[in-house]
Fold each of these.
Amino acid sequence: MLPPADTTLRQRDVDHILHPYSSPQKVAASGPLIISRGQGVYVYDTEGKRYLEGMAGLWSTSLGFSEPRLAEAAARQFATLPYSQIFGDRSHEPAIVLAERLASIAPEGLNHVLFANSGSESIDAAVKIVWYHHNQIGKPAKKKLIGRVNGYHGVTVAGGSLTGQPNIHADFDLPIAGILHTDSPSYYHFGKPDESIEQFVARIADNLEALILREGPETIGAFFAEPVMGSGGVIVPPQGYFERIQAILRKYDILFVVDEVITGFGRTGEMFGSFTYHLKPDLLVVAKALSSSYLPISGLLFTDRIFEAIAQGAAKNGVFAHGITYAAHPVCAAVALETLAIYAERDIVAHVKQVAPQLQNGLAALQNHPLVGETRGVGLVGAVELTQSKSMRAGFDPKLGLGAFIQSRALAHGVIVRALRDSVVVCPPLIITPVEIEELLDGLRRALDDGLAHARDKGWL
Ligand SMILES: Cc1ncc(COP(=O)(O)O)c(C=O)c1O
């Protein structure tokens, strides 16, 4: 049924859209913020109000909201070959060149790619590849998968199971069997009062080893981790953490799946978070900034060793019986290729290295704010942690909604930030300039001050 002509866009939205990660009641009460256009690092709502998009959409719009070359690349490909598929004995040039380009910039040895349309799908593909691989190499019992508390790997059945956040499991009957979660590497949240960072790292690494031994190493197939946890609140790994973890994975012959859905393509100040933290992935997932999010495309990269096992299995079974209609969609692939070309031409990694200290120093300066327990980040992603008591590192009761209040005040000041658990996070487009970083920090500071006044008003402090 069509709405009456005078129904507002907001009402039409509320009537029909179930928004991801939303409370339908809240959306119905206050209506969604409807964004209608973008320019550089800014977006505009339907009333013309401008916002600095300090979250780059969903940690993803690396080149901002008006890169003409991406629109042109899409238009060229639409005019040449708008769709073709790569099942069986077909292929097309954008897919071939993109796979080559990815292999050439990825961590060493990741020579093969399986394309999909989203991070979640590629995580699920990683799970299937891990299982398939172990069946081929005569280790069919090696099927359990380890994620981490507060880690995020999407929402599909396997990805959502690996995600270590209770609200993503509740009432969805997740996690599925065979998924285990080990510690988060957040020293701020989980370090014991008298524990040094080194002791904390040693304890959680020992916990991982104990978990593996308890379950039986012969049953553990893979460990999944983001180099920097994103939606877990921008958790930067402590010194020495990944070194210890990788040694354990090697010791027990456990595959390492690195989820670079947020950290891929310059975010941490290197092309991949794997370079920043010296990771040696067996499999690696990319999405989001692969196309600056202008079109949906993701990829699972993996090693020759894994490819050979898959090829053996395919020979035994007749085919590698996995694939999705839009895998390596030619228009998405063409836009991804243009995105990678722009990263190279503009040396996006050097740009991030150059401007990141300003963002990180600006966040660090907020450490003295009465509401802030910790600030953290790397490259162009960061967070401030809200606290009711700096000495106790205690967060506010989530029911008070202080994070959401600060997020809404930031909006009022013209910047988009995101409240996640007890933190407020920023992850701006990689093209952000020093002047724009200052504007983002200024909006965040003002929103925190509003949050402080609000908390005092309510008697929470
Ligand atoms: C680290 C990480 N992995 C996986 C995903 C899932 O990606 P998508 O939302 O494209 O399915 C996300 C999404 O934010 C993510 O941050």
Note: The longest strand covers residues 110-116.
Amino acid sequence: MQSYDFVVIGGGIVGLSVAWAIMQRNPGVRLAVLEKEDAWARHQTGRNSGVIHSGIYYKPGSLKAKLCREGNRRLVAFCQQHGIKFEICGKVIVATQPSELPLLENLFERGIANGLLVRRLTASQVLELEPHVRCLAGIQVPSTGIVDFVGVSRRLAELIGGDGGELWLGTKALAFRPEGDRTVLETSKGLLSGRWIVNCAGLHSDRVARLAHANPEARIVPFRGEYYELRPERRHLVKNLIYPVPDPQFPFLGVHFTRTIDGSVHAGPNAVLSLKREGYRRTAFNLRDFWETMSYAGFWRLAAKHRREGLREIYRSFSKRAFVRSLQNLIPEITEHDLVAGEAGVRAQALRPDGGLVDDFLIVRGSSTIHVCNAPSPAATASLEIGRVVAEQIPCYSAMRS
Ligand SMILES: Cc1cc2nc3c(=O)[nH]c(=O)nc-3n(C[C@H](O)[C@H](O)[C@H](O)COP(=O)(O)OP(=O)(O)OC[C@H]3O[C@@H](n4cnc5c(N)ncnc54)[C@H](O)[C@@H]3O)c2cc1C
């Protein structure tokens, strides 16, 4: 049986950042990363909007606000150092209805409270940046950018491997068994053991936590985010990143336009309940995933509270016309013909038994395990900082050895 000081479960950008941070803090450590797929970043990390967020939306003082702002800075430095494609192009957030103006102002204030550079824009100043947008007013956030998150993940894996970490692709963690001061992990490739196990299993993080007998007090409910893509001849309608004012209760609702680092332009994502945790098509279904959601009181409490928003998202998922109408609030000249269906992603959103969405990142520490139980957006932006925070919760390697 192979034995390690640290075993990290999950080869998305969070697991790889955590593994790299542990290795940086503890040179010479024996560490393994387990990933059930045959390649890195196949789930949330490889199926998102590719935006380096600024941190404007998050409650001042929250982990999201702190780790996103600093994560943005570190991610940019990492990309510069390792030759990974990125661009700090800035974004605009626009109010298209009078009722959104106070919310836009609140967002501006929040940006300032979060220590960001933000600029108020009149409608004509928005037009200078995004000539096809029609709005009443906007704000510009210059520190927002776009990046290749899969490229970042692959580079992290190379760095971990280069420093002596072991990379176990195609290896699923199946069960945990404590044995003295170690934990024995049963995996799809046999047994291995670790002194510390770190769970960064994204859409499966609650299940992995339960395997380790931890109680994350929240369950992952998967929400699919579907995108359309602008036809190449219509990409000129979007210069950079255009967002509506978010509903403070559902910051992830509200479709937007994002130029990606490969030059395409995405419109979306929406947010519909997924009947499969890794279900990227509307018809995707998994009995266990479905049952776990349907038998969870938290889900029904959320559904009862927000039936209207939920139904609207389902309608917009099936009706391209409704999706386009939302986009026309931002760019009136967009038509159904300009858009083709794109890839989808699934968000791992932790939901409390009372039906409340876990708003902040949630990291739960046991005696020899750490579980990253809620790492939705902006966790890709914040990943290097999440890695630092997790690594700092674990005693130093030299202390463990003595
Ligand atoms: C539609 C969408 C748009 C988004 N847009 C952005 C954005 O623009 N900017 C941003 O910062 N964030 C964005 N996010 C959020 C961001 O993608 C996630 O926060 C981030 O990728 C989470 O990374 P992760 O490593 O925790 O999860 P994942 O990337 O999902 O990785 C978890 C990994 O764990 C593996 N795994 C699971 N169970 C096991 C097991 N038992 N054994 C071994 N391996 C296991 C999985 O195969 C997976 O590879 C978006 C998310 C979505 C879905």
Note: The radius of gyration is 21 Å.
